[in-house]
Design goal:
This protein has about 375 residues and is α/β, with parallel strands linked by helices. The strands form three sheets. An eight-stranded mixed β-sheet has the order 1-16-17-15-14-11-12-13, sandwiched between helices. A seven-stranded mixed β-sheet has the order 4-3-2-5-6-7-8, covered by helices on one side. The longest helix is centred in the N-terminal third of the chain and has 16 residues.
Length: about 375
């Protein structure tokens, strides 16, 4: 047992494991992965237990900002400090709380009110706050003016206003405008610079993301890469492809989300990697993409895993190596048997989400018969 660091633990619906000793948390996650993939030889990688997150989606409510109450999504637990968020986020949270007392907050049951979320992001050398407003509110002008006044004195580099309909519960959207700064954030991994969109996905644990990239690069370096093509599948803004471009003759970053692939194109130029191309394509339509051979694949799908058509096409392409990065070990266990011609060479667990049940896994797959 452990003493929870958070004063709201047990009421806040976020963290669920602070009462468990961290070594036990890691062992629980290792066993979950072992059961899912049928392998006990798993490398476990971890870093700090608290103050790691680079993004939080704080919910406005009449008494301030907080997270959904444990066991009751309609109630909001007021939170003035989050112990799994990094200190910069907590600084920005304090700024928002001090400036928006008495704000017209959204009532999710009545579908009325204006202020819904403050999405606060703080990568290593950048920051943003997106104020998510009810697009159907009659008080948007007042809200926009209030955000503009806040932006003038806030230490956040970037401040945005995002509109979402009252009928949805989203904290990001395509309908937004920049109040201050820009709609892009920058992060660096292994000497490469990456722009990513304020409204998009990016890893929320910098320290562990670096270790995950170091591990994947090590796996690639242990395999012949000269003369090979790298497919960065579900590639987002191109992190895996760009970081490892120097190892390969050519690289394709494939991603269906247009906003992310635009950033991938900017990142290719930003890092001067002329052998990388960014392709907007649904991974389920991978058969429509011409790929050079010999081929190596890094795939990093969403929690739902790889589409069956994608898995089938990988079987057709028959890469020399597949590195599968998974944020859902249960789905990973479902997907792996479908890659019938491949065997597991190595497995690793990366605890990107301490104090929660979630973790990332990286498995190295080679054609059956080549596991030695």
């Amino acid at each position: 047992m452990a003493e929870p660091l958070c004063a709201y633990f047990g009421r806040c619906g976020g963290c669920t494991a602070q009462q468990t000793d961290y070594a036990a948390q890691l062992d629980n996650k290792r066993r979950q992965l072992a059961n899912a993939i049928g392998c006990e030889d798993i490398r476990v990688v971890h870093d700090r237990e608290y103050f790691y997150r680079t993004r939080v989606d704080m919910i406005f409510h009449p008494n301030g900002l907080g997270f959904r109450h444990k066991g009751d999504w309609r109630r909001i637990e007021d939170v003035d400090r989050c112990v799994i968020a990094n200190e910069r986020i907590n600084e920005l949270l304090a700024e928002v709380r001090a400036s928006f007392t008495g704000a017209d907050t959204f009532d999710i049951r009545r579908k009325s009110g204006t202020f819904r979320y403050a999405v606060i992001r703080a990568p290593q050398n950048d920051s943003s706050i997106s104020f998510v407003l009810n697009a159907d509110s009659t008080r948007l002008l007042d809200a926009r003016e209030r955000v503009a006044r806040f932006a003038e004195r806030s230490s956040a580099a970037n401040v945005l206003v995002t509109y979402v309909p009252s009928s949805t519960d989203m904290s990001v959207g395509e309908d937004y405008y920049v109040v201050k700064g820009r709609d892009l954030l920058e992060e660096s991994y292994l000497g490469r610079r990456f722009l990513h969109h304020v409204q998009g996905f990016f890893q929320n644990n910098y320290f562990m993301a670096v270790k995950l990239h170091e591990h994947c690069r090590g796996l690639l370096q242990s395999h012949p890469t000269e003369g090979r093509h790298l497919l960065d599948l579900y590639g987002g803004v191109g992190t895996f492809g760009i970081i490892n471009a120097d190892l390969f003759d050519s690289v394709s970053v494939v991603e269906s989300f247009g906003q992310a692939i635009q950033c991938a194109g900017m990142n290719i130029e930003l890092n001067g990697v002329g052998n990388v191309r960014a392709v907007v394509l649904d991974a389920a339509k991978l058969k429509n993409l011409e790929l050079p051979k010999p081929l190596i694949v890094i795939t990093d799908p969403p929690r739902s895993g790889m589409h069956p058509k994608t898995i089938h096409q990988l079987g057709v392409l028959h890469p020399e190596l597949i590195i599968y990065v998974s944020c859902n070990v249960k789905q990973l266990g479902i997907d792996l048997p479908k890659l019938k011609d491949y065997s597991l060479r190595s497995a690793a667990l990366f605890d990107l989400f301490p104090q929660t049940p979630h973790a990332e896994a990286v498995v190295e797959l080679v054609p059956t018969g080549e596991t030695d």
